[in-house]
Amino acid sequence: PLKKIMTTNVISVKTDTDQEEVARQVAHYDLLAIPVTDAENKLLGVVTVDDVIDVIKEEATEDIFYMAGVDVHDHVYTPVRGSVRRRLPWLGINLVTALIAASVVAFFEPTIARFSFLAVFLPVVAGMGGNCGTQTLTVMVRGLALGELTWANSRAALAKESLVGITNGLALGFVAGFAAYLWKSNAVLGLVLAGAMIINMFVAGVTGSVIPLLLKKINVDPAIASGIILTTFTDVTGFLSFLGLASLLLHYIPVS
Amino acid sequence: PLKKIMTTNVISVKTDTDQEEVARQVAHYDLLAIPVTDAENKLLGVVTVDDVIDVIKEEATEDIFYMAGVDVHDHVYTPVRGSVRRRLPWLGINLVTALIAASVVAFFEPTIARFSFLAVFLPVVAGMGGNCGTQTLTVMVRGLALGELTWANSRAALAKESLVGITNGLALGFVAGFAAYLWKSNAVLGLVLAGAMIINMFVAGVTGSVIPLLLKKINVDPAIASGIILTTFTDVTGFLSFLGLASLLLHYIPVS
Which residues of chain B make contact with A139, given a CB cutoff of 8 A? Predict the structure, then answer.
């Protein structure tokens, strides 16, 4: 009789289980198929491993695309019209946040008019913060997708990423600051650049880990909007800390 | 006899087949296992679907991580030391390319000293080019990974992405240019910003599609270095086109 060979301890999923979770179960227990049951444990169907493979590929593509502001239905062979329609809104939002960040620079225009060399380092400070934050963001978003990152270990992750950010900031802030000092023989410029990079890369570590967790908490896919919120933060913080420090310190120094 | 039930048209792979290709075969034919044979078709083993799932997840994680400059062995629970050691070199390369791009701005310092409002738009032009190019890059890199993009259809993809880039550039270039015109009541500034954004987003579409194809051609994983080469290009082109156009056109206009 089947009783002798059947397993009674069955791993099954419900009809409303997220397909990502189904894929996780199948992958974790190395199953070839997983039964789907209703609330009364009545068997309604099965999901087979070949469909799970498609789900895993889809979900990975989704994560990659969302992080770059690309729609999942946008592919190499999508017509120009279709791709423009899907990408333009995202770039439009990017433009708005870029102009918001630019308004911080506009606020410091008198300082730049006096010390035009400051303009040279604006993209450096903002860009390094953005890169540093994107690294954190990627580890967090993928950690959430793979189930490695949970609400329980999120505090440890936040503490770790903040430390990584400030460490990388210290290392590269002083390298960049020294380069700036050599270029203009201006020690204050070097210190301002180093300070701004340390501040911005620390902020990048904090925001890069907090943003995906908060989005997950309010049930928004953390891959979708994390990048744009992060770079808005790192742009604003970068411009504000660099030009703010410069305004405070350079005005007491004669123009070289 | 088995002859009656066996399939003789067997899909198999060789011992030196890339694991990504094995995963593609299993996924494509919905197999539960695929035989591995040597050059004389002697059976050496099988790869089962549960291992293929792990490969697919790994490869996707690799693509996502490489694109953000993160090592595959860098996870949420990696100690601070380990993460810093893995991320710092990548950020260091980023800093060098950022300083190279910054030297373009330095070249135009006299122009910025005269027209300080130009500094406000530097990160906007460079950033929009970077975002636009990253969208193209992501579609191309994922297209290569999923086998959608081949050398045969690469010319069509390049033509398409260039068109998408210039279309998005036209749309957002004029929006940003109009915003700049309203802000400073300076039509030339508006035209300079629009022109620079159109040029840069076109260049972003071209380089975003060419770079991963070239890297693939020389057997470098296109996910690894594409991003940094792209942003170096879009930064340099952005600064050069914006400040170059400004130098040509603004010097004939009285300071407002």
Answer: 65, 70, 74-76, 83
